[in-house]
Amino acid sequence: MKTADRMQGVHRSYIREILKVTARPEIISFAGGLPHPDSFPADRVAAAAAKVFAEEGASALQYSTTEGYAPLRKWIADRYARQGLTVSPDDILITTGSQQALDMAGRALLNRGDAVAIERPGYLGAIQCFSMYGADFKPVNLLATGVDTDMLDDVLERTGAKVFYAVPNFQNPSGISYDASTRHRVAELMARHECMLVEDNPYGELRFLGEDVPPVRCHMQTPSILLGSFSKMVAPGMRLGWIYAPDGLMDSLVRAKQASDLHTATLTQSILYRYLVDNDVDAHIASIRDRYKRHRDIMVASIRDHFPEEVATTEPEGGMFLWCTLPDSVSAEEVFKEAIRNNVAFVPGKPFYVDGTDNTFRLNFSNASPEKIEEGIARLGKCLRHCLS
Ligand code: PMP
């Protein structure tokens, strides 16, 4: 079948392909980016749904506005005030997960061939999505303190990139967060180079160590986009996220979304809003943080016990992932094959790079039980020793 040119450079999500292999019950998987299912408030969402049907009836099943359910947009705007950001509900567009927000941003901003600065490694879903619009990626290294701002300065200067896509909190895949001075510097560089920051923040609420750091948006003198999601604080299956965008861009985003799906499901927006106002969401998020901290501590301790010293790992202060770097000569894809033979799985780092680097891999710590984490890391330690010997 002769498909459109735009599909040529777009690969199937490598992770979704890997998940087919790792679904076998005997495999301990650190591959998916899945929240822990016990963190989904199923009973409370069911109660919220019953209330929506009792109180709103058929109107919860009707078409609605593209911008999204007004009370939900206000709830999001009010929550930003806690981070020191003054946001009008009019600047919020509800999307079908923040993945759709990325798609809307790509459609509204990118022409084929436009340079897009992206973290190296970068979020696979953004690479896939912006590829669809012909992005010419310009990778910028991540350091332990966040993006390498000297390199970013240089890349923006040389390429005139129109957009910088960043995940400053507990990045997927690396788990790295930007420190305060990196955030200031990024804001300054965006202004100096007239570059649009697309700041993606699905994990910001999941800090379990250290102090909260305000979004880069708080330091920006120029317009920028901020994306958010309910996937990690409530449940990903509801597919609810949002995009906060400056005045001049909102109309294009709304038109892009209309062309795509008219609006996000009326029903799930109403149910989620009911859930948010009828429950103590902060207590719920605190329980998720506690759980993930426990998982992360067990994974870090097990790695120290079992991994060879030559394997470097990040020790994140939040989120769901940590990131391992092998000696240059070792291929993570080879380690992956050995791991699958030993019934343990992770995601090799290659698809997170636009330049083919192959000596890194991602481990998810939110989904497996503490017992499975210990057992899985011990198995992986054996595989690493085998591959590094
Ligand atoms: N951005 C990043 C950095 C992510 O890790 C994810 C989830 N894997 C998304 C966006 C998309 O999340 P959702 O569509 O569920 O909000």
TrEMBL record:
<feature type="domain" description="Aminotransferase class I/classII large">
    <location>
        <begin position="40"/>
        <end position="380"/>
    </location>
</feature>
<keyword id="KW-0663">Pyridoxal phosphate</keyword>
<dbReference type="InterPro" id="IPR004839">
    <property type="entry name" value="Aminotransferase_I/II_large"/>
</dbReference>
<dbReference type="InterPro" id="IPR015422">
    <property type="entry name" value="PyrdxlP-dep_Trfase_small"/>
</dbReference>
<keyword id="KW-0808">Transferase</keyword>
<keyword id="KW-0032">Aminotransferase</keyword>
<comment type="subunit">
    <text>Homodimer.</text>
</comment>
<comment type="similarity">
    <text>Belongs to the class-I pyridoxal-phosphate-dependent aminotransferase family.</text>
</comment>
<dbReference type="Pfam" id="PF00155">
    <property type="entry name" value="Aminotran_1_2"/>
</dbReference>
<dbReference type="InterPro" id="IPR050859">
    <property type="entry name" value="Class-I_PLP-dep_aminotransf"/>
</dbReference>
<dbReference type="GO" id="GO:0030170">
    <property type="term" value="F:pyridoxal phosphate binding"/>
</dbReference>
<protein>
    <submittedName>
        <fullName>Aspartate aminotransferase</fullName>
    </submittedName>
</protein>
<dbReference type="GO" id="GO:0008483">
    <property type="term" value="F:transaminase activity"/>
</dbReference>
<dbReference type="InterPro" id="IPR015424">
    <property type="entry name" value="PyrdxlP-dep_Trfase"/>
</dbReference>
<dbReference type="InterPro" id="IPR015421">
    <property type="entry name" value="PyrdxlP-dep_Trfase_major"/>
</dbReference>
<dbReference type="GO" id="GO:1901605">
    <property type="term" value="P:alpha-amino acid metabolic process"/>
</dbReference>
